[in-house]
Prior knowledge:
Elements: H1 7-19, H2 22-29, H3 33-47, E1 52-54, E2 59-61, H4 63-86, E3 93-96, H5 103-114, E4 120-123, H6 128-136, E5 142-145, H7 152-155, E6 158-173, E7 184-185, E8 193-194, H8 204-214, E9 220-221, H9 231-241, E10 245-248, E11 257-263, E12 268-276, H10 282-298, H11 311-318, H12 322-327
Parallel strand pairs: 3-4, 3-5, 7-11, 8-9
Antiparallel strand pairs: 1-2, 5-12, 6-10, 6-11, 6-12
Helix pairs in contact: 1-2, 1-3, 1-4, 2-3, 5-10
Amino acid sequence: MPHDLEPRLLRAFTAVAEELHFSRAAAALYVAQQALSRDIRRLERELGAELFVRTTRRVELTSDGERLLPHARRVLAAHDELAAAFAAADRPLLVDVSAPVSTGRRVLDEARATAPGSELIARFHSGLTGAAADILAGRLDVSFGRVAGLAPATLSRLEHRPVRYEPMAVVLSREHPLARLERIPLDALAGETLYAGAGNPTTAEWTDLAERLFAGRGIAVAAPFPQIEGEAEFIRLVAKHRWPVLATTEFVDMPGAVLRPLVDPVPLALVSMVWRRGLRHPGLTALHEAVTTLAAAGRWLHRPAGSWLPDPDARLAALPDPDARLAALPESGDVRPAAQLHPDDARLTVPPGAG
């Protein structure tokens, strides 16, 4: 009998034992069903016992499973008491939402409304590359952004779930010849140079996305510029240099500029919620519930026919298991290589490459 069973395996077992249904148990644990089944098989191997009888119609506990259940519950209760003694459940949860107007901010507002007892503190630092480093260093709990742009070694230490396909857009000065168009065909940007955060190490995933989108289209990424701190400074510099800016349809209102969605095809940025592996907090549960509610109501995870999405993002989005998503990334760590917008998508946030 092993003496170092992981609590995660026992949690997987008790969830299936209580639900007698793998899909419902996986949903309750916020894990993919494949990952849950893998944990159950591992536990059975370590115990040398079959715990469930599985058929196409039902799941039942074996006699060994019945014997294990009360012991597993006691072990998990003791484990939870130990965790609570060293990490108070009411501690604030620090959530980076990138900008005051963003998908992350919408999720945060919904979570605050449905779980007022949890203290969720917003931070507005753009860039998932920088946020991921802060999460791993213990300076941040949750963030939002493009996980396919992270190095595999970083992503392996994080949990993540897709939240929304954000249609991409361009910010133009009102005097720009293309500003008169309601939507900008990608081919119309040929010969243009767009700001996409080059030179900002915290937003490398956004610059990578821009380079993938512009490749072969005659569109250039603006030369590296020193990291811009703060929304006001970003607006000032964009106005001064008259930069067209690659953004999404979630963007802050900018004086003297217009936001125009890109079409033919509609390019998408896949936004995910990201947190440290093993993090447990009521606020994180509230954020998960908010994502589920908003994504369903706004069809956030509906991908329009004919839309554009980079191959690494598409591969990750198609794989429900986070470990499988990680395996889909190139081993080298180099992750580079016409539909109507919903009315709710016409809101304007500082793009991931802005600050």
